Amino acid sequence: MTKRILIGSDGTGRFRIRASAAGHNVDNAALDDLLFDADAVPGRIIRQGARYCAWNEYQQSQPQVPAETTFAHNVPPGLSFIIVAIAKARYVDGSEPEDWRYWANEGSPGHLRVVLRNFGNSDMKGHYVTPHRFSGDDSNGYVYWGGWSIGWNGTNITVTNNCACGLWVRWQALEL
Prior knowledge:
The chain is mostly beta strands. The protein has strands at 5-9, 15-20, 34-37, 45-53, 67-72, 81-89, 101-108, 111-118, 132-137, 143-152, 156-161, 167-175. The chain folds into 2 domains: 5-37, no CATH class; 45-175, no CATH class. It is built from no helices and 12 strands. Strands 5, 7, 8, 9, 10 and 11 form a 6-stranded antiparallel β-sheet that branches. Strands 1-2-3 form a 3-stranded antiparallel β-sheet, with no helix packed on it. Strands 4-12-6 form a 3-stranded antiparallel β-sheet, with no helix packed on it. A hairpin with a 3-residue loop joins strand 10 and strand 11 (156-161). It is elongated. It starts with a strand and ends with a strand. 18% of the residues are buried.
C-alpha cells in the first residue's frame, strides 16, 4: 500500500501538502507522478541567478567576434532541466545605454569601418528582452549584427553577447 497524501511534516522538518497518483508514494514521487504539490508548479525552479555579461569593445578590430561569459548553474546532477533567461542592456558600472545597441559596417565599399548604432527605440531602455541574435546584409555591402543568445550543458551556462553594450542577465533553471 502506498502513501498517497501528505499534510504536515515530510520528515525533514518541512511542512507540505502533497498528493500522488495511484501506485506512487507521496514521499518520493517524481514531479510527473504528483497530482498536487503546494510547493511546486509545473516547471519547478531549481536554481536562479543574475549575472553581468561583458561586451566585446574591440569590434572595430575584431568584427563579428562576440563576447562570451560562462558560469556554473549548480543544478544537481541527474535532473532534466532547461534554462530560461532575459536580459537588459547595462554596462559594468550599472549604467544603462540610451537604447539597445548593435554593430554595423559604415562607409563606402572598400573603405568600411565598424560603428555602433542604436535600435532607435528608447522605449527599450531599462527593459528586459528575451534572447535574440541577428546579422544581415543590406545588399549594398553593409553588414549589421547584434543581439545575444544563451546555451547550457550539465554544469555551465554560456551567454554569447553580440550587442554593443553589456548585459544584465537574469536566469532560471526549470525542472522538466
